[in-house]
Amino acid sequence: MLYFMFATGIENSYPTIQNGRFRQDEMDKTRHYQLWRRDFDLVQELGVTHLRYGPPLHRVWLGPDRYDWTFADETFGDLRRCDLMPIADLCHFGVPDWIGNFQNPDFPEQFARYARAFALRFPWVQLYTPVNEMYICALFSAKYGWWNEQLTTDLAFVTALKHIVRANVLAMHAILQVRPDAIFVQSESSEYFHAQNPQSIGRAEFLNQVRFLSLDLNYGHRVSSEMYEYLLDHGMTRDEYHFFLDNTLKHHCIMGNDYYVTNEHLVQPDGNTRASGEIYGYSVITAQYYNRYGLPIMHTETNLNQGPNGDEAVQWLRKEWANVLRVRNDGLPIVGFTWYSLTDQVDWDSALRENNGTVNPLGLSDLDRNLRPVGQAYRDLIREWRAVLPTQSTALTLPVFPPSQQDGAAAAAVQDLARTHAHAREATYGMAEAAVTGDRLASKGEA
């Protein structure tokens, strides 16, 4: 049964900075490696049922087909024992050192093998975000020059984007080989660019097309002629573009829209942008994404600094929740909401560009695991609204089962039904399946 998913997440970003010399490991900075049991207890105390959570990729994935599952076995085993449903977050803004960065063309196929190995290791996991915020990851790494490859060109951006989205698509195929009823929650930043004056309109319109590129490719949505030329002019081939058109798994997806006060931008006459603050808001921008893709929606990230008065985050929670209800009342199939993250974060005031150790009071709790006012407000919100928000989404046909029911007859029947359709999908998407299983690498003598 699919019901409204009240969620939070453990912040697990791990991009590299300083030309690869330092890794910003948020699980380390927030002491999750030491306090993970307390973190899971806190999730339960809040009444949260779904947790955006993933093992640290750079610590687990040691090399091609080489893994250290020690920490993942402990943490995911405890999630199952607690009957908390993870939305498995497999790649969050970084890759292991041996991969290098997102310019590496070997990353997509290798990552798909990792995703399949994870699904085999934890077959009871049903919900996944294979690659988190694909657009932001490519933008910050290869266009802004902040993380990982730290490049600043359109060629680098398109290269990173096509590799990241291909990795996400191949990972979905790989997971479905193991778990045919898997559902994928694409946590993606929902953006909008406002023209400051008439001279800014052209650039704003261009950026308002670029913001869709990651999901256009992921969902096999044909881009405009302008975006097609942009992609081909900056490193994407015609065959690479058609890979995305031919390998869509849209029917297994929930469109996750992340929204922060920094997600709307003002485009200046010189083409540069700056944060505009909230102008349209979550409900308006999410409707734009829904009209484009027609998928069930989940509000997959938001937060705000607690502020000097101590109530700014609580007010933002109420505002975002009002936007969720507005989306629902407008008839759009919204299935969940997330305050991200469970605890405060570290160094996100510099977008992880600097290693200053600055604590950002954005969490439901502080780093001593004491609830902040927004944590108390979220706990109350969940208690008050849970019973009156059944999810009625005609787009989702596969039910979701909590860990305690994963071995039951109902879950088995759904998996069997999904498996009967898998052979047709594999025949249709043979190229992706071959890449996942290693046939493509074997043909090059690399397997």
From TrEMBL:
Gene3D superfamilies: Glycosidases (3.20.20.80)
Coiled coil: none
A Pfam short name: Glyco_hydro_1
Molecular function GO labels: hydrolase activity, hydrolyzing O-glycosyl compounds
InterPro entries: GH (IPR017853), Glyco_hydro_1 (IPR001360), Glycosyl_Hydrolase_39 (IPR051923)
Name by which UniProt lists this protein: Glycoside hydrolase, family 1
Gene Ontology biological process terms, A to Z: carbohydrate metabolic process
Keywords from the UniProt entry: Hydrolase
UniProt entry tagged with the keyword Iron: no
